[in-house]
Specification:
The chain is mostly helical. It has helices at residues 16-30, 42-49, 53-65, 87-99, 104-125, 128-147, 149-166, 170-192, 197-216, 220-235, 245-251, and strands at 69-70, 80-81. The protein is elongated and about 65 Å long.
Amino acid sequence: MSDGAQFRQVSPPVRLYQRIVEQIEQAIARGDLKPGQRLPSERELVAQFGASRPTVREALRVLESNGLVRSRQGDPNGPEILPFSSAGLTKEMTRLVQFDNVSMAELISFRMILEGSASLLAARLRSEEELSAMERTLAVMSDAIEAGYEEFSKADVAFHEVVAQASRNSLIEVCNLVVRGAVLSLISDKLAHAPHSTALMRESLHHHKEVLEAIRAQDGLAAARISRRDLYDYYVGYVPENEQGPLLALVDDEET
């Protein structure tokens, strides 16, 4: 454990384990505790915090659930501080989508914003290796049209993952992953069995090729515009007409 991480005794009225969690989180945020370092043993934490053993254990359980520390059964050392992971953010965003009644219109418009931003940044920051990776995913998408929606969707996801990686923004990557998954969980069956499914896939592939060319040309505004339009065309039919306003607002600039 770093010498700079010193903890204070905790007291009511807030649940004690929450205060312990806060102090350890703050120590990690300040850099007093770094990935790979160890917290004190459970006995030492009990003494430092002036809390009961069950309270300390509950705090450690919360920290482990949030992906901040890892405990190994039988390990005589304290829990290990873990490097940053997007898993916790993914988990919380998934809960937001599942339990807060986010509408299809909100999900799709948010995805349009994310994909547009990712494409804009990718156009300016992408590497030659990332361009090659995008080309490969488009080739797989093209071959997958005849195989059906499920295979096409996998290749589609791969393309957007490369674009998000090229944006150099891990939050865009995580948010894209979660929002895309939430949308598909709601309507993937409808997309797979739509009578015009093949036509939709071919049109989407065409838009993806246009996005790639804009990214290759480092035209970020065009890449963002085409990305938003592609998502609008692909999903607008699954949004009630009276809720389509936010989606239309995101593509209106293309008509002016």
